[in-house]
Amino acid sequence: AAPAGATESAPAPAAAPTTWSVQPSTEHGPDDRPFFRYALAPAARRIDYVAVTNAGDSPLTVDLYAQDAFTTAAGGFDLLAAGRPPVDVGSWIRLKQTRVTVPPRSRSDVPFELSVPDNASPGDHAGGVVASVATPGRDAAGNRVLVDRRVGTRVHLRVDGPLRPALGAGGLSARVHTAPDPFDGGLTVTYTVRNTGNVRLGARPELTVRGPWGLTEKHRRLDPLPELLPGASVTRTVRVDGVTQAFRLDVDLAVHPLPVP
Known about the structure:
Blueprint: E1 20-26, E2 29-30, E3 36-40, E4 45-54, E5 60-71, E6 77-79, E7 93-95, E8 99-102, E9 106-115, E10 123-138, E11 144-159, E12 167-177, E13 185-195, E14 201-210, E15 217-221, E16 225-228, E17 233-243, E18 250-258
């Protein structure tokens, strides 16, 4: 209880979370594109718009920039950190504004120009346009840091020229797991798939295990791999059970390319 003559004050309400979104737009507002997609020749230019929408009740200032994309170790799509200079499609985008203040419950449509270099390589180039907000926070050790919160939209550019869809598989290794039943052993198989071409691809791996003299053959269709950007690779480890325990086992990996939207 409060002492006599004192007034108890209610706790201050928590600050509303900052919420914003980024999407393709026009000078008149967003359209129905899920992301930016272009097919352009070297030396071509394109003017477009990106919308930054503030869903909060206070003005919001964001830093706008374009960045190159990469495939994560888990096979996801991500953009390089803000501090790393882009060298591909992220460096070919020039935003008219790099810092924008958006009023509450409002939207800003920011124009940009995409200029494809004369010597741009044919095929797919991936990146994104990002709106970021730096907010105070603490790291794992409790130190005060600025946390860069990013929201972005993808940019997929295909430059005219010869297309080479191609995947390569390598780094294949297998470890045997013995069992009391000689026909119920197991294998742990690790493999790497790399996009060696110049277009975005998914992949469907298939694994075949063979023993000597036709004692055993185990065929398994593995989970499809997500989108791999040109030059990217992912490594996976899977377990195959029900394998005959022989003194020699041959493991073959086939990788079938899949189109991506």
